[in-house]
Design a protein that fits this description.
It is a single chain. The chain has 693 residues and is an alpha+beta fold. It has 23 helices and 23 strands.
């Protein structure tokens, strides 16, 4: 019988990565000398499941590597070895190694075994030394020889659907054989006639007699993956059985079954694996999935039911004679349809929402590793872990958050001596906080360190030509300079920060999600980076504007204000750029009808409206004919459905069926040339001339 196991690969990879996350989280909680047995068991079970699954699918590089770390964990949980800091560090490195191996297999690549082999040697060195030096090895061998050997009778009857879950009994047999002397009996009395036989159902059952020093729980762990898919009985029989005794005992306990004695020779586990998978099939193509709570699914089903009822009512009304009563009922039905549609939309969007704990969970390990490297003492606090946001947003915000946390650890927090010198607790605190605010999610990265050095930032900015020597800037404006490309105050380049790249990329990546990032700081107290993001990338809160006969959508999050232009405060800069003096700023005016080549737009400045928007810490004014309504719109990819258009981030379909383009503010600034070298200097120079006049 041949089963295509590739259909189960993606589930295996998902569960394995979840298991690795659980291992890492529990390892970070371990304190040598104070470890909890249940924590050790949780780590062991995760490793054991990964080993069993990878063995089932023929991923031997993973199963062989996991075996050695599983052996160490088994000795620790059985009290044969004391946990040390070295063990924890090695196990954490093994989690990283397993992630790399599994990621390579998931993407159908050959895994790099260099790191795995190096770690395996370290495990084998630890396991080879034992708990004492070599002069105690003889006594240990004597203890092992005197260990009690018991015989267990194991009755294993899989349910018929076992193979459909991706499980293979031969692998369980091979694992049992590793525990001691194994004799195997198979019953085939449930195999149906050939006409009723189905190739993907299991009709066999087994009885094993195992002579082993291991406890019963070790045997049960082999069947953990199938405990809900079989009947399993394990009975302690006492002393050793001979071949005749086992066969006779099997027949006495089950006289009606057709029991056949398997070969009494030791089982070759490698041959067993070859019998099942001669060559592992290639992994399935990587796909994304999401786990959804049953409450969300039930709610969605209820909404669909309401929608069906409303549709049936409208269909019935459409078949009746048109009267004032039917028109009133039709209007009521349409209102109900609109209500049901909104509810359905909200429930569908909830399916994509996940708690931000999926992102936060990676930071305890990051903080531990970096603080050790920097020789700093750091406590990480996580708040608002159950705050939900869209899965796509979550995946894209992870890297910017990592960079901000690394900067807090490297630049923000002081060393132990520095903190003690100013009367602070030697342990610095980094806090990650998430909460909803309006239609957005706010993420804060806070530290109680020394704060940003505004003097040093300003000196670097002047040296790099970002600002002039005589510019008067507030502390907040100086702090914003850290987001300029290539800006860094680090005196030396390290593998943690200080390469002169990063903070500008952080802001750009966040803005690509229609979000924003700000920084606030107080000397000696600490710094806070605040990220604001939309809850989802699928729906946008937008302002509809009219340009000639066309309707465009401007993201509300980008809009600073809208105003009627005062022509007396408009001046010409260069050949064709107008700027508006707005309070203490000069705002470049972009004519959308020129950029998008529209005819028939209003060109007189004092008869149009200006929408002031901001991107990359730069404000511009968009000239429009009129402001229309504000509404939520469903974003459609223009690049996927048509082609990439500069200055446009996507499209949507309006209520009247027309397609409306969504303006990309950052792309529009680039398209207009305002980011070209010298453009900002020209505006600044013109500002100075205007102020002088």
């Amino acid at each position: 019988m041949s089963i295509d196991l590739s259909q189960f690969f993606e589930v295996f990879f998902e569960e394995s990565f979840e298991g690795l996350d659980a291992m890492e989280a529990e390892l970070l909680n371990l304190v040598p000398g104070e470890e909890d047995l249940e924590t050790i068991n949780t780590i062991f079970r995760a490793a054991h499941s990964i080993k069993g699954g990878s063995g089932t699918f023929g991923f031997n590089s993973v199963s062989d590597f996991t075996h050695v770390l599983e052996t160490l964990l088994d000795q620790i949980r059985e009290g044969k070895r004391e946990l040390t800091t070295e063990h924890v560090d090695l196990l954490l490195k093994s989690v990283d190694c397993l992630r790399a191996l599994l990621s390579a297999l998931q993407s159908e690549q050959e895994p790099d075994l260099e790191e795995a082999n190096a770690l395996r040697l370290k495990f084998e060195a630890i396991l080879g030394l034992g708990q004492s030096e070599h002069d105690n090895s003889n006594s240990e061998c004597a203890d092992e020889q005197q260990a009690e050997v018991n015989t267990y009778q194991i009755d294993f009857k899989p349910y018929h659907h076992l193979f459909k879950t991706g499980n293979e009994p031969l692998y369980m047999i091979s694992e049992l054989a590793e525990l001691g002397e194994l004799e195997t009996h198979v019953s085939h009395n449930e195999i149906p006639d050939i006409t009723d036989l189905t190739a993907d159902d299991c009709f066999l059952s087994w009885r094993f007699f195992l002579n082993t020093e291991k406890e019963e729980r070790v045997i049960r762990e082999i069947f953990e993956w199938v405990e809900d898919d079989c009947d399993l009985t394990i009975t302690l029989c006492g002393g050793l059985f001979s071949e005749d005794d086992t066969a006779q005992g099997a027949e006495e306990n089950n006289p009606d079954s057709k029991i056949e004695l398997a070969s009494s020779a030791p089982i070759n586990t490698q041959e067993v694996k070859k019998a099942v998978v001669s060559k592992a099939p290639p992994p399935a193509t990587e796909s994304t999935s999401i786990r959804v709570g049953i409450d969300k699914v039930d709610s969605l089903i209820n909404m669909v039911g309401e929608l069906v009822i409303t549709q049936a009512m409208l269909t019935q009304l459409g078949e009746q004679e048109i009267t004032e009563a039917t028109i009133a009922s039709l209007q009521e039905g349409l209102a109900q349809l609109a209500h049901n549609t909104r509810d359905l939309q909200e429930n569908v969007m909830r399916i994509r929402m996940l708690p931000i704990s999926f992102v936060f969970s990676r930071f305890p390990r990051l903080v531990r590793d970096i603080s050790q490297k920097l020789n700093k003492q750091v406590e990480l606090k996580l708040l608002g872990e159950q705050t939900e946001l869209d899965k796509t947003v979550m995946e894209k915000i992870s890297d910017p958050m990592v960079h901000l946390v690394r900067n807090s650890l490297d630049h923000g927090l002081e060393t132990v001596d520095q903190r003690l010198a100013v009367g602070k607790d030697p342990v610095g605190i980094v806090t990650l906080n998430a909460f909803h605010q309006g239609g957005n999610i706010v993420i804060e990265i806070m530290d109680d360190g020394q704060g940003l050095n505004t003097t040093k930032i300003k000196e670097k900015a002047i040296a790099n030509g970002l600002i002039a020597l005589g510019d008067e800037l507030s502390d907040d404006e100086i702090n914003e300079l850290i987001f300029m490309p290539g800006f860094s105050t680090a005196d030396a380049v390290s593998d943690i920060s200080g390469r002169g790249v990063g903070m500008d990329v952080v802001r750009r990546n966040i803005q690509s999600l229609n979000g924003s990032v700000e920084v606030s700081s107080a000397t000696g107290i600490g710094s806070t980076f605040t990220i604001r993001l939309p809850l989802t990338l699928a729906i946008l809160d937008g302002q509809l504007v009219k340009v000639a006969k066309h309707t465009y959508i401007i993201p509300l999050i980008s809009i600073v204000e809208s105003l009627q232009i005062d022509i007396t405060k408009v001046s010409r800069v260069g050949k064709d750029l107008d700027v508006l003096r707005l309070r203490d700023e000069y705002i470049p005016i972009l004519r959308l009808y020129n950029i998008f080549n529209h005819q028939g737009a209003i060109e007189t400045l004092d008869k149009t409206l200006l929408v002031v928007v901001e991107s990359d810490n730069q404000k511009i004014g968009l000239l429009v004919d009129d402001l229309l309504s504000q509404q939520q719109v469903v974003i459609k990819s223009l690049e996927a459905n048509y082609q990439k258009v500069d200055g446009v981030s996507g499209a949507t379909i309006l209520g009247d069926g027309r397609v409306s383009l969504i303006i990309d503010i950052s792309g529009l600034i680039k398209l207009s040339g305002l980011r070209k070298p010298g453009s900002q200097e020209l505006i600044i120079e013109s500002q100075a001339n205007l102020e002088a006049s």
